[in-house]
Design a protein that fits this description.
Layout (H helix, E strand, L loop, with lengths): L6 E5 L5 H10 L4 E5 H13 L6 E6 L19 E7 L1 H6 L3 H8 L3 E4 L4 H47 L3 H16 L1 E11 L14 E10 L9 E3 L6 H8 L3 E3 L16 H7 L6 E7 L5 E11 L17 E2 L3 H45 L4 H20 L12 H13 L9 H4 L12 H25 L4 H27 L6 H12 L1 E4 L2 E4 L3 H7 L8 H19 L10 H5 L22 H16 L11 H13 L5 H9 L2 H9 L10 H6 L16
Parallel strand pairs: 1-2, 1-3, 3-4, 4-5
Antiparallel strand pairs: 6-7, 6-11, 7-8, 9-10, 10-11, 11-12, 13-14
Helix pairs in contact: 1-5, 5-6, 5-9, 6-9, 9-10, 10-11, 10-19, 10-22, 13-14, 19-20
């Protein structure tokens, strides 16, 4: 028999002992005989004691067959076999043998009168029947367990493929292995490249070592202390990595003779009052069948959920050896885990490559123009600071706003790329510190012309003096007046060349008058200033002409064109939108697309605020001084009122204190002054009107 349980006979026919005793004597090890009524009472008593399900043979006559099952309590029917005892006429009346078995659920019939031999043969058949039933049930259970384990491996494979967090991935791998095998503890080791070591095509392990990366223990609270170890056959983990095959050990304190490895965990056991015994160590192989890590499981238990006692003497019988089935399943799981982990590593390496390339672009802009290189680095920081404040806020439009880790990464990439188009902007325009600057500042050429004017004035003075028609005093006074005028004009041109907030009409007229003066250069008489020089010096605001400003502004168009040509994956699909929207305005008068507030995402609107604030406060711009905190916030408050900046985000910028946090890190102490937050927050957006497009040189 498969089980030690007996088959209980419930005789509802009342066979005499002369019929039953011979069969029971021969098969007494397997059967226990009871009259029906007493047998039911006896089995109910066993059930009440928690003895569990038993095998029952019910002997019934044809008159009771229709309700034979109902005569046995429901909880005892699972392993019930019914045998009908009757005459041939009884069987015919019931529809024949086939009908009795198929319709009434009987397993056998026995013709009356019953002989001792017939009863004994019946018992043999019933014993065989229950033996087969138990075998079938066991096979069903094993099949169900196998299906469950295969499903768990399949589900785990999907979970491993979908998990993007490395620590969660490691926990999923190890916890699943421990649950599947009943292990009390487990560790993960990973193969890493040794710094400063050359690879060897003939030896995969030449430039590698093992890192103890993750561990769990169900019975002891042990802190994780990572370490590295060489990959050698002297350690169990190293041996498994080198052999690329699983290793099962029933007791690590008693290893087989002649093995190259030894167990080095006795000091650990003593320190933590633990006793490692059974161990299963399995390599994690990649697609090339090279080990990228090792899974090590310790102390298989009957119940994974029950921790082992602090008293080691109570462990007897609780720690079991790992089975071949455990080894096969964990080896299969380890392959999936290895591929999943390698995919994660490749994904992380690709992210690092992408970020490095992006920062390389920013660094190229930095080297191209040191005046705006800091901008490319600071805007991402400020963008993420304000985005974090938006995620933490529970007010207004931010109540349901949040960013997943992937969306944070998307915003991070977009912020770093927001000015990548500047890589095509000519340096002499990007760095144009004065109105006359091109490859060099042409003010020096004009100053040379002023020297020529002084020389000519002196020549005129000497010539007039030799004619003796005018008194020396008058000539000298006129000469000095002329020099003073030249000096004043030179200072004026130098001042105008610097650029400012506004240039008056009178100043433009004076520039034109200075430019009309005649000067002889290389024997040719010409205007003191060329038309192009007058045009540049007459710039009313800043240092850029409208044409140059368009080139500067077009950097965002180039940025969008560059980014839209890149095949961003789905998780980075909004990078062009975020990066390309920081010069848009809430009323639709921005550039390049003229988007309105409702057409822009919150991250894109956040970047617009970060871009403006950084541009206003930056101290590395050649064309202006960095403004103070109060000046910058007042300007931005006006931009909020004019629907240039998102009012909700700007108010959050103020209330959250993000602007102050940024100022402490990136502004000079003399720039940081008091800001009247109440007054700024009191400013409300004006009723929407058509606005004239303007641009910020940032």
């Amino acid at each position: 028999m498969i089980t030690n349980e007996k088959i209980y006979i419930l005789d509802d026919v009342g066979l005499p002992a002369t019929i039953t005793q011979d069969g029971l004597k021969v098969l007494g090890y397997a059967f226990e005989y009871h009259r029906y009524k007493q047998g039911i009472e006896y089995l109910n008593a066993l059930q009440a004691e928690g003895k569990g399900i038993v095998d029952i043979l019910l002997l019934t006559d044809p008159t009771m067959l229709h309700r034979a099952k109902q005569r046995v309590p429901l909880e005892l029917r699972r392993n019930l076999a019914i045998v009908v005892l009757g005459s041939q006429d009884d069987f015919v009346e019931l529809g024949g043998t086939e009908h009795i078995i198929n319709h009434f659920g009987a397993v056998d019939i026995l013709e009356m009168p019953v002989t001792p031999l017939a009863f004994k043969m019946l018992l043999h058949r019933i014993e065989h029947l229950f033996r087969q039933r138990h075998r079938f049930a066991l096979l069903q259970q094993e099949l169900s367990e196998s299906q469950n384990e295969l499903q768990r491996i399949s589900d785990l494979g999907a979970a491993l493929s979908n998990e993007s967090d490395t620590e969660k991935l490691l926990d999923t791998i190890l916890t699943s292995c421990m649950e599947m095998t009943g292990a009390d503890a487990g560790s993960l080791y990973f193969v890493e490249k040794k710094p400063g070591t050359d690879s060897n095509e003939q030896d995969y392990f030449a430039d590698k070592h093992l890192r103890f990366r993750y561990a769990k223990n169900m019975s002891r609270d042990i802190p994780l202390e990572g370490f590295i170890m060489p990959i050698t056959p002297q350690s169990i983990v190293g041996y498994v990595a080198l052999s690329r095959a699983p290793l099962t050990l029933p007791d690590v304190y008693h290893l087989p003779e002649g093995v190259p490895y030894s167990f080095g965990g006795r000091a650990f056991d003593e320190k933590w009052n633990y006793r490692m015994k059974s161990m299963l160590t399995v390599p994690m192989l990649n697609r090339e069948r090279n080990p990228i890590g090792v899974i090590q499981l310790m102390n298989k238990k009957r119940d994974f959920r029950v921790p082992l006692s602090q008293n080691l003497d109570e462990w007897k019988g609780l720690v079991l050896p790992f089975t071949k089935r455990d080894e096969l399943f964990i080896y299969s799981l380890a392959s999936q885990a290895g591929i999943a982990y390698e995919n994660k590593l490749l994904y992380e390496e690709q992210k690092i490559l992408l970020e490095s390339f992006i920062k390389l672009i920013a660094d190229s802009i930095d080297k191209k123009s040191p005046y705006t290189g800091g901008h490319c680095n600071r805007v991402p920081i400020l963008t993420e600071m304000l985005a974090r404040a938006a995620c933490e806020s529970q007010e207004g439009i931010f109540k349901d706003f949040n960013l997943t880790p992937e969306q944070w990464y998307e915003l991070h990439i977009a912020a770093w790329l927001h000015d990548c188009g500047k890589i095509t902007t000519p340096v002499h325009i990007m760095d144009k510190a004065t109105k006359l600057e091109t490859i060099y500042d042409r003010i020096h050429t004009i100053k040379t012309r002023f020297e020529i004017l002084r020389r000519d004035a002196y020549i005129d003075y000497l010539t007039a003096f030799q004619r003796n028609g005018i008194s020396p005093e008058t000539l000298e006074a006129e000469y000095k007046r002329r020099l003073a005028q030249i000096d004043d004009d030179e200072r004026f041109i130098e001042q105008v060349n610097i650029g400012g907030e506004y240039l008056a009409d009178s100043h433009i007229e004076r520039i034109e008058n200075i430019g009309k003066q005649k000067i002889v250069l290389n024997g040719e008489t010409r205007d003191f200033l060329s038309a192009e020089e007058i045009y540049n010096l007459s710039i009313r605001k800043g240092t850029l002409t409208p044409e140059e400003r368009k080139i500067i502004n077009d950097h965002i168009v180039v940025t969008i064109q560059m980014l839209e040509q890149l095949p961003f994956p789905r998780n980075l699909a909004r990078v062009p939108e975020y990066a390309g929207g920081h010069h848009e305005k809430m009323d639709g008068t921005g550039y390049p697309k003229g988007l309105k507030r409702e057409e822009m995402s919150i991250p894109a609107r956040i970047m617009a605020i970060a871009d403006v604030f950084e541009a206003l406060t930056a101290i590395d711009r050649p064309y202006k001084k960095g403004k103070t905190l109060s000046e910058s916030m007042n300007i931005m408050a006006k931009m909020k009122a004019e629907h240039h900046l998102d009012p909700d985000l700007f108010d959050l910028f103020v209330k959250s204190g993000v602007y102050k946090e940024y100022a402490k890190k990136f502004m000079l102490p003399e720039q940081i002054d008091e800001v009247d937050e109440a007054a700024i927050l009191a400013i409300k957006p004006k009723p929407l009107t058509v606005q004239t497009e303007t641009a910020t040189h940032s």
